[in-house]
Structure formats: C-alpha cells, structure tokens
Amino acid sequence: MADSGARRLRGLLRHTERSYSAGHDRPLGGYLAAMAGFATFTAAWTTAVRLRGRPLPERPEPWDVVLTSVATFRLSRLLSKASVTSPLRAPFTRYVGPQGPAELHEEAQPEQGRHTVGELATCPFCMSVWVASALTAGRLLWPRATRTAMGTLTALAGADALQLAYGALLDRTTGD
Asked: Residues in the chain with pLDDT < 70?
C-alpha cells in the first residue's frame, strides 16, 4: 500500500518536472532537496537559540542590518566567485574563465545531484540566503564573535571598493 503511494507520488513529481521544465534542464528534485536542507539548517539554529534561552530582539537595529548586509554581500561573493575558494566549488562546477578582479566565471556541472549544488555555489544571490541566515544565527548565538567577523567582512568589502576606485582613477589619469 505505502509502496504504491510512493510510486504514484514519484510519478506525479516526474510529470510535474517534465511539464514545468518545457524541455529545459530544471532539476526540481535538487531544488526541493536544497530547500529541505535550508529548512533543516534554519530549524537547527532556531532550536539552538531557543535552548540557550537567548531572547530575540524586538526588531533589528539599523546598524546590525547594514553590517549584516555588507558582510553577507562580501562573504557570498567570496564563497561563490573568488579564485581562492574555487577548490570548494570545483566538485560541482566547471571553470569557464575569469570574471572581474580575482573572480571566476564557473558553470554548474550537469550531472544529477551536482547541478543544484553547482548553481548554489556559483550564484552570490543564492548563496546570500544561506550566508544571511548563518550570520543571523551567529549573531543570536555568539553575538560578539559574529559581530567581529561581520566587521572584518565589511572592512574587506570597503577595501575592495577602494581598490576598484583606485584602479579606475589610475586608468583615468594614465589613459590606460
């Protein structure tokens, strides 16, 4: 009985994936697994916050929102685009070429199971959901250490902006 229900559910999911994808490779099963992983991750840190008895703030402080935003931006790009973190992405991606200063363009490997992780690993927008959640958890569980790390990431983002501005100024003044 349960076996036939599971077969019907798998058939329905395959049919839904085929009709949704319109002939394109859209790994809905992988996306479902990623969403389940994110829900599990979020439930785990939420439970840890509750068990520690840490009170939630009434509302986020504006400075914390700014700090978290900039730190999320920088860490997401570091994880998803930086040359130095490419070994972390390599099992799930293929190198295509350089893409901006110290960044790479990579594509997700097409194999089942690797494609979804490869998309997540190369997309700073996708990665930022996980990073923002992790930084939020860190702020609630280990506020001083997390704020210190976020301050470092924010300083790195500022330094990157200054490096790019300096390079642009140099190009403009020297005519290169």
From this structure: 1, 176
